[in-house]
Specification:
Blueprint lengths: L3 E3 L9 E2 L1 H10 L7 E5 L4 E10 L4 E10 L17 H14 L2
Parallel strand pairs: 1-3
Antiparallel strand pairs: 2-5, 3-4, 4-5
Length: 101
């Protein structure tokens, strides 16, 4: 499975990943130079990227193709919930948001 990372500087050429993303890719996923990742900017843009250089505290990437995506769910979801205790209601709201309601 290709790693997918939030990268707000998607449209800027020659940008590099920040320290936390570098640590995640390098030490947790143990990614190597030449491998592919997917980056997105949160504004509906997604791109395939190639790992060019892995340094001590940064990773340089090359953006290959940028495309617009839509993350809207294919179905409409309506949740009905009766009143419950406050601590349970927080849990219901949390799970409803995770489902996309």
């Amino acid at each position: 499975m290709t790693p997918r990372l939030f990268f707000p500087k998607l449209l800027i050429k020659g940008a590099s990943l920040d320290y936390k993303q570098t640590h995640y890719l390098k030490n947790v996923l143990r990614i190597k130079e030449g491998e592919k990742i997917i980056v997105f900017d949160g504004n509906g843009n997604e791109a395939k990227a190639n790992i060019d250089l892995i340094a001590e505290k940064k990773i340089n990437i090359t953006i290959e193709t940028i495309k617009k995506i839509s993350n809207d769910p294919p179905i409409k979801l309506v949740i009905g919930q009766c009143l419950c205790l406050a601590n349970k209601m927080d849990y219901v709201v949390q799970k409803s948001v995770e489902l996309g309601a």
